[in-house]
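Q&A log
Question type: sequence-to-structure
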Amino acid sequence: MGRILKTAASLVTGLALAATAAVGTIPAEAAKRCDVTFKAYQPIRQGSTGAQAKAMECLLTKAGFATTVNGRFSAADARELAKFRKSIGLDPLTVGGRRAWSALLSQGTTPHLKKGEHGRAVVRLQLALRSAGFVKVPIAGRYNAATVAVIKTIQKSRHVKQTGAVNADFWKALQAGKITATTVVGKKSTSKKPVAKPASNKNATKGEKALAYAKKQLGDPYRRGGTGPNGWDCSGLTMKAWQAAGVKLPHSSGQQYRIGKKISKSDLRSGDLVFFYRGISHVGLYAGNGKVIHAPRPGKQVSYIKMSHMPYMGARRPG
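Response status: OK
Response body:
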């Protein structure tokens, strides 16, 4: 097992080099080995330093994007990350979390894999799944029972036959950043909308009333510019939720950030507005236990998500 963990990075490196060579000349930086095996993968953004920042720089370079592999994620590196995200159909954000990690680590060929197989492609698959948040996937180099179980869970969430094997469509979804533990958990949690306490409760705070309204929208689709009743964007959801509590908000996450009382993370209460990403480009409502309810992005639904899965920028209490 120890030898497999040590060689996992070089296996992925060879595949990334092959993929880069197919489209053009490999940059000089790409000749360096990518050390990409970690127990957990952290979001990387401008200012990030260390081994994981260097790993993302290296993977971006091997994918054909011009970064400097030095372990210091610069503004230029962040712009290249945004270009990579855009190239695979993700929002061109300058932060690389689970979607970016798994997409970068899974780049390459799309072989059919099943239980019992082993080799470079299996390591690449397991690294991509681990970085996507499936922490029970071992980086073993062998397609074992634990890997099969995770694949079946993902297949169930995607409403396809639960074979436990990986085909080209599965690889392409990974390479587009469409498979993460968050999306799988989110689909399970939104299959039924939780019953919210009546917002008319005389003892409920404005924040609790706003949260109760948002809970009723769980499972509704994201729609750009949406303010309900059947489609929402992030600030449209928070605007209407607080409107239900008697508080008027603008339809803009950036403008909502300037309203009300600034709240520390340790003092968050139900319904507080929680903001994410540099430039304040996303907002949700605090739902307790370190989670928010939010309208994520096109193709997704109003759902719960752990705050730790997005870069936290601050919180406000409008009422």
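Response note: Confidence is low (pLDDT under 50) at residues 1-32, 186-200.
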